Amino acid sequence: MTLPSIAAPYLIYLGDTPVAELAKTGAGLAFWRPERCLAQLREPGCAADLGLPDMDLAQAAAAGAKTLVIGTAAPGGQLPPHWAKRIVEAMEAGLDIASGLHVPLRSNPDLAATADRTGRQLHDVRLSGGPFPIGNGLPRSGRRLLMVGTDCAVGKKYSALAIHRELQDRKVPATFRATGQTGVLIDGHGIAVDAIVADFLAGAVEQLTPAAAADHWDVVEGQGALIHPAYAGVSLGLLHGAQPEAFVVCHEAGRTELSGFPGHKTASIGEIIELTTILSRRVAPNIRCAGICINTARLPEAEALAVLAEAEAEHGLPATDPVRFGVAKLVDHLLA
Amino acid sequence: MTLPSIAAPYLIYLGDTPVAELAKTGAGLAFWRPERCLAQLREPGCAADLGLPDMDLAQAAAAGAKTLVIGTAAPGGQLPPHWAKRIVEAMEAGLDIASGLHVPLRSNPDLAATADRTGRQLHDVRLSGGPFPIGNGLPRSGRRLLMVGTDCAVGKKYSALAIHRELQDRKVPATFRATGQTGVLIDGHGIAVDAIVADFLAGAVEQLTPAAAADHWDVVEGQGALIHPAYAGVSLGLLHGAQPEAFVVCHEAGRTELSGFPGHKTASIGEIIELTTILSRRVAPNIRCAGICINTARLPEAEALAVLAEAEAEHGLPATDPVRFGVAKLVDHLLA
């Protein structure tokens, strides 16, 4: 099967989100894929601004917008009725809809009926799509790099996008492979692997990262952590399906407890290198750690640099904060 | 939530299965849960015989049967029309229906309509049920033993059922916990964990094996293998969710390649002990291997005994073929 793609350019819907920080998805889109973002649509009272032109539905449709992407979290995870009304109007104006909200668009009867009537597509990127094949674990061509973490939410998506951009800047053929809902919205393509039935997870990742030219890199977003009490199975299925020749460990400086899982310590970087290497023996026996990405946002610059220097000394690998210091030296090492 | 239970006693439906070996589910039911099996129902030409009394639907209903369990694989995985007709009649006679077939009962419009009209339940044990919570990985009371394998289909279910029976014979409080469709049909309770959305797998297993009395054993059926290219994520989620204090490695003598996965070697027993121990560090830091179960059906008895003796010498643990030699010494070691 072909994975569905979300048609660009996008009109990013920010609703009347009362807190700018809730518009993280929209901000990620505007930062990583500006060429896919035509404009933003905001309701009165919206606190967010992505720096894109403001357009209403008619203007955006006339300017060629193909999809209204919901670029902000909804209060309580639900879809407010006045947002749903605007989404109906967007379909009537000729736009598809893409959403990473917890509540599926199609569960709203008005949206489902309008989609059926207008023929527009509803992309719920938290739903997995499929059907997917069972994994086969056989070797395939192409180069693959996977982000792995010491916890959830430590910067795996950001690191993958930054490395992908750096490879493209160096004219190295590369594709970003989204494995979570925000990544799928940003890239317009991918699979939210945590929503897949467990038996098909590795097979879905094999399909997401297919055989490619020998010099082509798939840069694969990571999920969870191999030590995570709830999500380790997802992380392992992703590792086996991706068959990466290299991985990058992502970590947040100073985090000692798993986010949202009180009583569980985060993994050390060394522990994740060890587990990733051991668990790759069968499908990627020559796997190597290409470097370390550490989120140092909470530290002053001098301390951040000290943390990175310490990690480099301990592991003998390049360590960087991709937001602060870029990923050039990590990509140097990857390609060396 | 409470996990659904399949009401006993059962009338086991064998259809007109042309090959007795296809009736493995029915045979497992009659062997492991004879007290739940009232009778069998066979169509003309059926090659299987479970040694149960033959009854038609009226006789079985009058004798108190509560559920018609489909005890055989269907040709090509589909439901033959004359079987579907019999299932409709069973609901009209007052019986629920339970099935582990690939095709869901409810996908057949006649069966769905009859269930809605009669109020009978359709148990499709390959569907996961739910919703399930996210795992929390916190310690809980009770003792838990998990089967782990060097491959799929090496005897994990049989080993778990045999150990559970041995514990019960010794008056040790114990519950068998089914994690696959056949196990769920046999026990009337459980979760087919491979059908669960990956994010919820560990949480579902936590729910399946809840906190219990300090001296109570949950004997948990295993799935897949930690080295399996398609299913390792399922195995790891199951391990983390179960938090076992002990595990039994299940293996088939002489198997060198993963079943159905050409080009992939099976794991060694030692490799599975190592991986299970390493991957339990966080949720079950004191985990120990309680013994080894080896399927030696293809070997003459002298060779089988030699294989078991070799495994005992290599690992310093009791090794048995549960079918041939029982699990007494393994349970001795478990309880020592």
Automatic annotation (TrEMBL), chains A, B:
SUPFAM superfamilies: P-loop containing nucleoside triphosphate hydrolases. This is DUF1611 domain-containing protein. It comes from Pseudogemmobacter lacusdianii. Residues 46-126 form the D-glutamate N-acetyltransferase-like N-terminal domain. Residues 136-331 form the D-glutamate N-acetyltransferase-like C-terminal domain. Transmembrane segments: none annotated. It comes from the Bacteria. InterPro entries: DgcN-like, DgcN-like_C, DgcN-like_N, P-loop_NTPase.
